[in-house]
Design goal:
Number of strands: 13
Structural class: alpha+beta
Radius of gyration: 40 Å
CATH superfamily of the largest domain: Rieske [2Fe-2S] iron-sulphur domain
Strand content: 5-15%
Number of domains: 2
Distance between the termini: 113 Å
Number of helices: 8
Length: 355
């Protein structure tokens, strides 16, 4: 057998493939400039060797958390103290809302102090040693899980959460108070309704004013089978809150032969067959306006809820859940129709339970 090596007889070490080339092992050469240098030696911080320095850091962190709590209290106090229309001049911002400025500053300080306190705590008092852990499969071995739990417990111990109670308590206080800022801001969703949904502009002695003529109504102004719209005396179109008030106080009147009225209370609250009901549908608040004089039915054009005005305005058809509220009316000494009070129930879709 020939000893010739052919074209490969002059192969040398310089021609061997590098460990960095694809398809070869990951063993790095001694002169590899990208070799992992490893972690540098750990240098202890002053807080690690000097308890006085650690105490100073603890007080600094607690101060930031306490400042956050005070800023949250100031946020709530500013919301109450500053009127929404108060404008002040602040250089270089110019003229700004005092309320918005106070809320922004106090909430910013509250959030910043929580973050700054947490960062200072981590950098000065928590463990800062870097640890190397080889990658492993998602389904860790029992020994690995035990090691992770042990590392977690060790980290919790080194964080000094249990030992440094001043930091722990002030942090809990700051984190617990900050959400109150958001709760307070819910107040801006609108004014508190209180009992406003239960009352309208109608009251005892208020005249019924014709919406078309702007004149007080007399019984003779309303013919049998007719439909008339009215508003309470004193509510004028040029009033600033007219739309808000008429949305609840809009009234419709029809005249029915007394013998055709089936509901006793309806008959007692009417005058000579003239009955007055809220014009606001109890489904979603659309204006009820389509009247059928032969059947005494009134129809809401939005979703076809149908009410029987000869039987307490009870619902005959459609999605409305309640009868239309009735207004108790009578005639005063001057011969004008007037209200005997407000509606007995809230108008429109204000409540599902109206007891």
């Amino acid at each position: 057998m020939s000893s010739e090596t052919g074209p490969h007889e002059n192969v040398s070490d310089e021609n061997l493939p590098s460990a960095q080339e694809p398809g070869h092992g990951a063993v790095a050469r001694k002169d590899d400039p990208f070799a992992d240098p490893g972690l540098p030696p750990h240098e202890p911080r002053i807080q690690d060797i000097d308890e006085k320095a650690a105490r100073r850091s603890e007080r600094a962190v607690a101060f930031m958390f306490t400042l956050s709590m005070l800023a949250t209290v100031a946020f709530i106090a500013s919301y109450v103290a500053f009127p929404i229309d108060k404008i002040i001049f602040v250089w270089p911002l110019g003229h700004v809302s005092a309320l918005n400025l106070a809320l922004g500053l106090t909430l910013g300080i509250a959030l910043f102090c929580i973050g700054a306190g947490a960062v200072h705590w981590a950098r000065t008092l928590m463990s800062d040693e870097e640890m190397i852990d080889e990658r492993h499969t998602v389904a860790a071995e029992p020994a690995v899980r035990e090691q992770v739990l042990a590392d977690f417990k060790q980290g919790a111990k080194e964080s000094a959460m249990g030992r440094r109670k001043l930091i722990r308590n002030t942090m809990f206080g700051a984190v617990a108070l900050v959400p109150l800022s958001g709760v307070v801001l819910l107040r801006d969703m609108g004014p508190l309704p209180e009992d406003k949904l239960r009352h309208t502009a109608w009251a005892k002695g208020k005249l019924l004013v014709n919406e078309n003529t702007n004149e007080p109504l007399r019984p003779e102004d309303i013919a049998v089978g007719s439909l008339t719209f009215a508003r309470p005396e004193g509510l004028e179109h040029h009033d600033e809150d007219f739309q808000q008030e008429i949305a609840k106080a809009a009234l419709m009147l029809v005249r029915i032969e007394p013998k055709d009225i089936k509901d006793k209370r309806e008959l007692d609250w009417s005058h000579d067959g003239i009955v007055a009901y809220s014009k606001v549908c109890t489904h979603v608040g659309c204006p009820v306006s389509l009247y059928e004089q032969q059947t005494h039915h009134v129809l809401c054009p939005c979703h076809q809820s149908t009410f029987d005005l000869s039987d307490g305005a009870r619902v005959l058809f459609g999605p409305a859940g309640h009868p239309l509220p009735q207004l108790n009316i009578s005639v005063n000494k001057d011969g004008y129709l007037e209200a005997q009070g407000d509606f007995a129930e809230p108008v429109g879709p204000a409540f599902w339970e109206r007891g």
